Amino acid sequence: MYSFDMTSEQKMLVDTVRRYAEKNLRAVYREAEESKHIPEKVVQTGWELGLLPGSIDARYGGYGEYSALTSALYLEEMAWGDLGITLHLLTPNLFAIPVAQFGNDKQKEQYLAQFCGDTFPRATAALVEPVIQFDPAELQTTAVKEGENFVINGKKTYVPLAKQAEVFLVYAQENGATQAFIVPADTPGVQIGKRVKLMGIQALEMYEVEFENVTVPKANRLGGLKGIRIQRLLTLSRITLAALAVGLARAAYEYALNYAKERVAFGEPIAHRQSIAFMLANMRIEIEATRLMVWEAAYKFDAGEDAAKSAQLAKQYADKMVLEVTDGAVQVLGGHGYIREHPVELWLRNGRGFVTMDGAVVA
Asked: Where are the beta strands (DSSP E) in 147-205?
């Protein structure tokens, strides 16, 4: 049976993240977007919240267990603060969560402790490829076994923080299935390309990366002989992205609602006008509906049920919802919505990107 009551631990976590988002992320989000750089102090403060270590077993240096629902709760608050900085903070998750989910004992012991320290880890993952109709289950990047090694060849894009990364988790096709390989950044053949210029989330550094005859030992195949289940990771990614979309849309809705209450035209607040009131009401309905879909998918995942369909539906609905809500916020502000002194234009640009990020984010 579903429960809509947070545990005391979840409530404390959500309250803590909300304060961080309001005090730290909202204070620098526009500067970070304009300068395409995130202040180190903001990143370090966010890391010190302990969100990732809280999802890692105590045997490997963490102090919690993974919960997709708990992640969804705090992710909404983070994205409400700023999506670009949030994605920066989530980059180490792209490496750590798959290792925690699928790594063998040796891999967990070797790597997970690195994500439970005091400093922000320099780790990322490379999944998305610069092709039309990208499919995580049909990768063009290949991993071919040669003796005791694997040789990786391929091109990736949308790789966050690649330039400063010390280790990559590279997804490649091996014998017709998608598998993941741990690749140190200084391995010969790893070439960091140009920074990707994005329509939104410009505070987040994303790069093209090429792997040319990159050789790693077979021990670097994530999960050993068992490998990974890419659909399980995609389910987590879709829950993550849908939760982030709810947070971003909520930010746009709240801003538009407050503006409509304060903006007076023809002697009354524009919120009194039926067209504006109906638009705001519909925005709220769509946000609440998407949130429930996210919670359902996360609940199923945590309960050990097959959450793939629920996560896919939540992600597709969230992609549409966040674009409608952020565009609606721009419309509520009228001409002011197109002016950069208001954040709704930024949120609209950020919202447009969700449909392109399938598999590129996990928490």
From this structure: 149-160, 167-174, 177-184, 190-195
- pLDDT for 201-211, tens place per residue? 999 999 999 99
Q: 3-state SS of 240-269? A: HHHHHHHHHHHHHHHHHHHHHHHCEECCEE
Helical spans, DSSP H, in 206-307: 230-262, 274-302
Q: Does domain 123-220 have CATH number 3.40.1010.20?
A: no
Q: Can you tell me the distance from the alpha carbon of 207 to that of 244, in angstroms, rounded to the nearest whole number?
A: 22
∠ CA 197-181-354, nearest 5°, is 35
Q: Is the pTM of this model over 0.90?
A: yes
Determine the pLDDT at residue 43. 97
Confidence of residue 344 (pLDDT cuts 50, 70, 90): very high
Per-domain residue ranges for the chain?
8-115, 123-220, 230-356
The one-letter amino acid at 201: I
| Local confidence band at 2 (pLDDT 50, 70, 90 cut-offs) | low
Query: Which bin fits 198, alpha (ψ -120 to 50), beta or left (φ > 0)?
Result: beta
Q: Which two tokens stand for residue 77?
A: 């608050």
The single residue listed with the structure tokens 């404390």 is 12
- Under a CB-based contact definition with an 8 Å cutoff, are residues 182 and 228 in contact? no
DSSP 8-state class, residue 353:
T
Q: How far is CA 189 from CA 192, 216, 356, in A?
A: 10, 11, 27
Superfamily classification of domain 8-115: Acyl-CoA dehydrogenase/oxidase, N-terminal domain (1.10.540.10)
| pLDDT tens sequence across 83-96 | 999 999 999 999 99
Among 46, 223, 231, smallest CA distance to 135 is for 231
The token duo for 10 is 């979840």
Distance of alpha carbon 183 from alpha carbon 220, whole angstroms: 7
CATH class (in words) of the domain with range 230-356: mainly alpha
